[in-house]
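hiii so um. not sure if this is the right channel but i have a protein structure encoded as tokens and i wanna go backwards to a sequence. like what aa goes where. can anyone help
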């Protein structure tokens, strides 16, 4: 139960990712979405939302793995999730916002 924060934060991040995937990109900072064209908002939301959802799911997976291991291996589960999720987020940023800022 010492890793309960992973579960709570992972669930919140999954909810934000699902919200972004449905087209609601208000949770993304304004300067990160200001250059996104109106017709690209659904595609941008899916890319950023999928990345966010992946990060949240890997955090939940790290919480589950913490039950079955004695050592602290949650980082080994979370790091690939952050890399994959960040890849999707950066893809959406560069393709639809024309840059990070």
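sure thing!! here u go:
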């Amino acid at each position: 139960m010492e890793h309960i924060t992973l579960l709570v934060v992972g669930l919140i991040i999954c909810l934000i990712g699902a919200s972004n995937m449905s087209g609601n990109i208000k949770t993304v900072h304004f300067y990160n979405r200001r250059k996104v064209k109106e017709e690209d908002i659904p595609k941008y939301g899916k890319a950023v939302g999928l990345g966010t959802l992946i990060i949240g799911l890997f955090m939940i997976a790290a919480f589950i793995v913490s039950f079955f291991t004695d050592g602290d291996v949650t980082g080994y589960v979370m790091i690939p999730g952050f890399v994959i999720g960040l890849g999707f987020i950066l893809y959406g940023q560069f393709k639809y916002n024309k840059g990070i800022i």
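oh and The chain has four helices and no strands.
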